[in-house]
Amino acid sequence: MKDLNTDICIKCGSCVRECPMNLIQMNDLPEIPETAEAFCCQCGHCRAICPEGAIGGFRESKIEGNEKFTITPEEMGSHMKLRRSIRHYSDQPVTRETMEEIFEIVRYAPSAANGQPVEWTVINDPDKVNQISSRTMEWMNEVSKGDSPIKDIMPLDSMIESWENGMDPILRKAPCLVVAHAHSENNMAFTDGIIALTHLDLALPSFGMGGCWAGILNIACNQHPPLKDVLGVPERNTVIYPFMVGYPKYQHQRIPERNQPKIRWE
Ligand SMILES: Cc1cc2nc3c(=O)[nH]c(=O)nc-3n(C[C@H](O)[C@H](O)[C@H](O)COP(=O)(O)O)c2cc1C
């Protein structure tokens, strides 16, 4: 096994049990057969579980006190229930440093076979975000003149009217827009992107921030490919979803009611 420090491995078999692909075999020492190496998804679980830190040249440091799961179910519940879609943003600018801190958390989101395929475009400029809404409204105006089925799923006329009245029904005058995208040939990336965005959504409130899924822009991008260029998404990539980000202007005073979960216990 590459990266195994044979002097300190105690042959406990933790790495063998932990490998999600069952690639590691315990011979004299844990080993990955050469033919199986290509299947390693580099998830790092063998390094993370090893009690001796014998794998990987200590690339990952040992978890210390404040990195353990210390959030109680009540605290986690509050955090997740208090998250709201934010549709009114204060003038406080979003800094690149803060976004970097947030992505430092978000990059730990799970992904299929640890593929980590999601790429990001951060449009952290209120004027540019407004420009994207403006281009989307141009498309809406065109669509509203024809008989597109989009008219059945979107209240185009009221959105056009609210835009004309100085509001932004597309991106809500958010100061920052994050776009998750991935290589078009990766057909597992969509789910990974949605998961990563969900991590972003949940991380934001801990920074005093908030956001909202930009579903209308997403539909527009799917219907009108030129919008993809406006979002700064590379040619080879497909948009997974755009997401508004900023500082909430107002504080929600209560948690809105939600349906009971529909669960079948078998
Ligand atoms: C995939 C998705 C797309 C959404 N698109 C929009 C949107 O385009 N505009 C908007 O104002 N809210 C959008 N939302 C927010 C939902 O309306 C919101 O999540 C829902 O009403 C529940 O409110 P909450 O997020 O505050 O709990 C979207 C949410 C999701 C998950």
TrEMBL record:
Keywords: Flavoprotein, FMN, Oxidoreductase. Transmembrane segments: none annotated. Residues 1-29, 31-61 form the 4Fe-4S ferredoxin-type domain. The keyword Oxidoreductase applies. GO terms for molecular function: oxidoreductase activity. The keyword Flavoprotein applies. InterPro entries: 4Fe4S_Fe-S-bd, 4Fe4S_Fe_S_CS, Nitroreductase, Nitroreductase-like. Belongs to the nitroreductase family. This is 4Fe-4S dicluster domain-containing protein. It comes from Methanobacterium subterraneum. The lineage of its organism: Archaea, Methanobacteriati, Methanobacteriota, Methanomada group, Methanobacteria.
